[in-house]
Structures are given as structure tokens and as C-alpha cells.
Design brief:
By secondary structure, this protein is α+β, with helices and mostly antiparallel strands. The protein has 6 helices and 11 strands. A hairpin with a 2-residue loop joins strand 5 and strand 6. The chain is globular and about 60 Å long. The protein starts with a helix and ends in a 5-residue tail after the last helix. The N terminus is likely disordered. Bound molecules: oxidized coenzyme A.
Length: about 250
């Protein structure tokens, strides 16, 4: 073994420990215990962040037509629709078109298990921490059905009424911070899934199109993917495909 390889193997063991600081020496502080759920989520996030080589690819899409469709459909059905069910539907289509994204690595790390179902998790902020309810067979459900199911699962997740069976079996996750803000972020993959879509807030932007200045509502999309399995070109195509579905939402 060369000394370079040896050095790379021992390098993590040589890291200095995290600093232990008595903050009380610098001013008033208060200690608050993390909830059981927060500790659990934190251990999974740390494992996924440390063990999966993440790359995040960013894109954006003009959602003026989607916004019109959303308003019209919401008014017609008398329901509140957000962009999230459209995202779920577009992702289900993309997973069908790009089977490598609808897969997991087998335990041996040498085989890819391709799934023929389209179950999508959506990260929900709850008072106790993050939960990811899974919506099953999203390819077979309409936008209003997906919207009703997400609202139901999100409110049960917040009321601690969601069983583990409704948070398992996902193929891919969506994390939407669109109702809050931001222009992009790097979501952590929800293993054993291979990719996750982060969605930030749509904003009105001025841009040049065919030499003319036009205003459009642009939605930022961030796709983190497992670079052991997915290459950058495929990630760019996958995210473009989602963007194209959202830009022309008529047949979603
Ligand atoms: N751009 C602009 N506005 C958006 C938007 C976007 N991308 N996404 C949602 N909105 C708007 C909605 O249209 C809605 O507007 P109106 O009240 O005017 O109709 C408003 O934001 C609130 O939406 P909502 O939060 O009630 O519903 P949602 O479908 O957008 O989101 C859910 C549902 C469950 C994803 C969300 O409630 C939530 O928990 N988000 C946080 C997820 C999270 O914490 N992710 C981080 C994980 S990593 O730590």
C-alpha cells in the first residue's frame, strides 16, 4: 500500500474532535433537549450526507401557464391548489421516462433495483421536526387527488397521526420551501432513494425573449443526486424534463 493510500485511509481518524465550548462563559444561555424525532432525523441525515456523494443541479422554469391552470382548476373545483401536486405529477412522469432515477442500490452496492411503481415522498415541516409522508402510485392520480392526499397526510403528520407504513416505500422525495422563500438549496438525499428535488419560491423576473423584454414567474428547482449511480448529464436531462412538464401543464 502506498503512503498516499495509507494517508487517505487514516485521514478521517486524524480529524480534531468537535470543539466543546462552555457558552455560559460568554453570556446567558438556555439548554433545550432535542425531541426524539429530531434526534432520529438528525442521525439519518448525517448518515446520508456522509455516505452518499451528493451533487446538486439547479434549473428554473417559467410557470405562468401552470399558475393560470392552478387558478382555473382551483376555482372550478372550489379547492386550494398549490404548485406542489403539479410537481409530484411531473416527477412521476420523469421517473417513468428515466428509470435509473426510480431505483435504489442493493445492499451489495453492485446492483441497481429498478422500481416499477411511482411512490413519492414530500417533506413536511412539523412542530417536532421533519417527516416525509409517501404518496403511492402518483402516476395514476390526478392533480386534485394528489392535492387532497398531500393535505390529509401533512395534517396527520403534524398531528402525529401518521403511521410508519405511510412514510415508507418512497422512490423519490420532494422538499418544497416555496411557501417560505429562497432561490435554491441543496437537499439531502433520503436513502435508499437516489435523488431528491428541492423547490424554492417562484418570483417574477424580467428576461429577454426573442429580443423582447418580458416578465415571467420563474420557479427555481434544485436536484440533488447520488453521483455513484447518476451522472451529471442525466441529472440535467431529468430536471429539464420536469421543467418542460411544468411549463406546459395542460396534460399533467
Ligand atoms: N413559489 C411560490 N409560492 C408557493 C410555492 C412556490 N414554489 N409553493 C407554494 N407556494 C404558496 C402556495 O401557493 C400557498 O399560497 P396561497 O396561500 O396564496 O395559496 C402558500 O405558498 C402556502 O402553501 P402551503 O405551505 O400551505 O402548501 P404547499 O403545498 O406549498 O406545501 C408542504 C405543502 C407540506 C410541502 C409545506 O406545508 C411544508 O411543510 N413545507 C416545508 C418542507 C420542509 O421543511 N422542507 C425542508 C426539508 S429539508 O430540511
Amino acid at each position: 500500500m502506498t503512503s498516499e493510500v495509507q494517508a487517505s485511509l487514516v485521514w478521517p481518524a486524524n480529524l480534531p474532535p468537535m470543539p466543546s465550548v462552555d457558552f455560559g462563559k460568554f453570556g446567558m444561555v438556555e439548554s433545550v433537549a432535542l425531541s426524539r424525532q429530531q434526534k432520529l432525523v438528525s442521525s439519518f441525515l448525517s448518515r446520508n450526507w456522509a455516505q452518499i456523494p451528493h451533487v446538486t443541479h439547479h434549473d428554473e422554469v417559467d410557470i405562468d401557464l401552470l399558475e393560470l391552470n392552478r387558478k382555473q382548476m382551483g376555482e372550478k373545483l372550489g379547492i386550494k391548489l398549490t404548485p406542489v401536486p403539479y410537481l409530484i405529477k411531473a416527477v412521476a412522469r420523469a421517473l417513468a421516462a428515466f428509470p435509473r432515477f426510480n431505483a435504489s442500490l442493493a445492499d451489495d452496492g453492485e446492483t441497481l433495483i429498478l422500481k416499477q411503481y411511482f411512490h413519492i415522498g414530500v417533506a413536511v415541516e412539523t412542530g417536532q421536526g421533519l417527516l416525509v409522508p409517501v404518496l403511492r402510485d402518483c402516476d395514476k392520480k390526478s392533480i386534485p387527488e394528489l392535492s387532497a392526499e398531500l393535505n390529509d397526510k401533512a395534517s396527520r403528520a403534524r398531528g402525529r397521526g401518521l403511521p410508519m407504513s405511510e412514510m415508507s416505500g418512497g422512490c423519490f422525495s420532494i422538499s418544497s420551501l416555496g411557501s417560505i422563500g429562497g432561490t435554491g438549496f441543496t437537499p439531502i438525499i433520503n436513502a435508499p432513494e437516489l435523488a431528491i428535488l428541492g423547490v424554492s419560491r417562484a418570483t417574477e423576473k424580467l428576461m429577454l425573449r426573442d429580443g423582447k423584454l418580458v416578465a415571467a414567474s420563474m420557479l427555481p428547482l434544485s436536484l440533488s443526486y447520488d453521483h455513484r449511480v447518476i451522472n451529471g448529464a442525466d441529472a440535467a436531462r431529468f430536471l429539464r424534463f420536469i421543467a418542460e412538464q411544468l411549463a406546459e401543464p395542460g396534460d399533467l
